[in-house]
Amino acid sequence: MTTSAAIEVDGLRKAYGDHEAVRGVSFAVERGEVFGLLGPNGAGKTTTVEILEGYRTRDAGTVRVLGQDPGERPPALRERVGIVLQSSGTYPHLTVRETIAHWASLYARPRDVEDVIALAGLEAAADRRARTLSGGQARRLDFALALIGDPELIFLDEPTTGFDPAARRAAWDTVRTLRELGKTILLTTHYLDEAQALADRVAIVKDGRVLAEGPPAELGAGAARYRVAWRDGAGVAHERETDDPTGLLHQLTSGALALGERLDELSVTRPSLEDVYLELTAEAVEA
Amino acid sequence: MSDHALEAARTRQAEHAGAERWLGTAWRQFRIERKMFWRNPSAAFFNFLLPLLLLALFGAIFAGERAKLDVIVPGIAGMSVMSATFIALAYNVTLLRERGILKRLRGTPLPTSAWLAGVAANAVANTVLQLGLVILAGRFVFGVAWPSDWIALTVFVALGVVCFAALGVGLSGLVRSAEGSSAVVNLIVLPMAFLTGAFGPTGHYPQVLRAIGDVLPLKYLVDLMNAVYLHKEAIWSKPGAIAVLVAWGVAGLALAAFKFRWEPVAS
Fold first, then answer.
1. Residue pLDDT, tens place only, A134-178
2. B79-117: b or e for each residue (b if 16 or more CB lie within 10 Å)?
3. Are A176 and A108 found together in one domain?
4. Which residue in B12, B19, B141, B158 sits closest to B72, CA to CA?
């Protein structure tokens, strides 16, 4: 099977005992794309990603990562993939530079150690022992170790969970740099703004299923179109969704003018990804 | 050259390059394990000071009793083999797993066998260093003779290393946390050391305790070390003891193979 897509997932299923964590997930990630799996905790994001990384076996479905089946754990695939796990440690008694250099020695064609230290923003901490790093610095080291093999594809599982705003921005900048380097990135997150800020395309996942998929802007603009809201002369709030806000506004404003009324709190909005996300995940809860 | 021969030559070349790479990876893992070992003061303490302290302690207790002093040196030497392999691996492998370091390594091209070789070589290096210290201290502090048969001693130390290293890795698969492994290891090691004669003869112990000691592997390692350290007995003079060590080693290997886990258990 030859393919241009970096990742292809079709009908993926995985259960732990009675609990079905992933129930028929399908999506594709193009090369050079930042793809976000967005969903609440327990949606099945990490299970999906860990199947793609080769950590877990699948119950059903087909999976291709850079044209290979990660379930067979081919060593050649691990040369081409970088992984940032949700949480994983490093050797506490090695310095940042020693750790990165050791990881470099595991790959056939690694990037330059000093380049990676700079890329991850670890220059100031390069000679510190790993056990003395702050949470943010440890996360940068995670990024560095995922990059040292010069991978084509990078998995980022909840890369900024627990970060303060400044550390999040720094991590986002790193992701953007990786994208500019032409890397393909699969990102999981439960932060909407993160998916919106970083991902070219997003799949919203809930209860082991993909509920919607598309570019963040289009997902937001998708089915719900424009929302026009106003308060009539009697002070009653109205809200209507429409494909053509111009016509509706003309109708509303001319009617109000004829009656000599004001349209208080008149607004026209396009639903954000957040609205779609909340709507979708809420529906899934009721179902 | 025919295409077939050319291809065979290429395959051989690739295999050769692969083997060289594997050796390089195992060697680098060994080097980094050594570096980390020396940077961890508590590990260095348990490896080098503890056997010497025990030796000093029992040396004081048995001062002037030549026969008992003689026995204590190979006994502590046997215990050194156990502490450098069984104790160190049970604790370290569990710690590496629970910290997520093993899981991270599993996501890289590092071959499992090369990693294990580096880690095992590190344990062997510690065994050799500890034994060296114990033998030197035995000779120059307590006046115990040099081991009577170096080759047989080396063979039995190697057997002990394989047996206890396998048991250590196997045990790590049974415990859920690094703290747990530390507790379990102490629970096993301390009574074992007393019951199996590492700290002196057990002939006067109650029957039940002797029976327990009789099934544990340390007793047989100490017996074998005694035989070749002090009495210049032939290497095959205790086939039963060798068999028991081999059996424990096989059990340890089976445990390691089936119970080894890459990912943190308690998360």
1. 888 898 999 999 999 999 999 999 988 878 888 888 889 989 999
2. bbbbbbbbbbbbbbbbbbbbbbbbbbbbbbbbbeebbbb
3. yes
4. B141
CA distances from residue B59 to A232, B63, B140, B225 in whole angstroms, order as listed: 99, 6, 12, 18
Residue A148 sits in the same domain as residue A50: yes
Residues A137, A29 share a domain: yes
Q: Are residues A193 and A230 in the same domain?
A: no
pLDDT per residue as tens digits for the range A228-251? 888 887 888 888 878 788 888 888
DSSP-derived pairing of the beta strands A81-84 and A184-189: unpaired
- Containing structural domain, residue A61: 5-215
Total-model pTM: 0.85
> In a 3-state reduction of DSSP, which class is residue A20?
strand
Question: For residue B6, what are its two tokens?
Answer: 């050319």
Q: What CA–CA distance (Å, rounded) separates B224 from B228?
A: 6
Distance spanning both ends of chain A, measured CA to CA: 38
B7 to chain A, closest Cα gap in Å: 20
Q: Would you call B36 and A83 a contact, using CB atoms and an 8 Å cutoff? A: no
Using the structure block, give the residue that is written with the tokens 């053509």.
A244
pLDDT surpasses 80 at B111: yes
Work out the mean pLDDT of chain A and round it to a whole number: 88
* Pairwise CB contact (< 8 Å): A94 & B35: yes
Average pLDDT, stretch B63-80?
85
- Predicted confidence at residue A1, as pLDDT, reads 45
In this complex, do A75 and B111 lie within 8 Å of one another by their Cβ atoms? yes
A145/B36 Cβ within 8 A: no
Mutate to test the interface with A, among B22, B31, B96, B103 (most CBs of A within 10 A): B103
DSSP 8-class letter at A95: B
The four Cα atoms A260, A264, A267, A272 give a dihedral, to 10 degrees, of: -150
Contacts of B101 in chain A (CB under 8 A): 88-91
> A167 — phi, psi (to 5°)?
-65, -35
Q: Indicate the DSSP class of residue B261.
A: -
Structural domain harbouring B185: 3-259
Report the alpha-carbon angle A128-A134-A140, nearest 5: 80
What pLDDT does residue B2 have?
Answer: 67
Asked if the interface predicted TM-score (ipTM) of this complex is over 0.90, the answer is: no
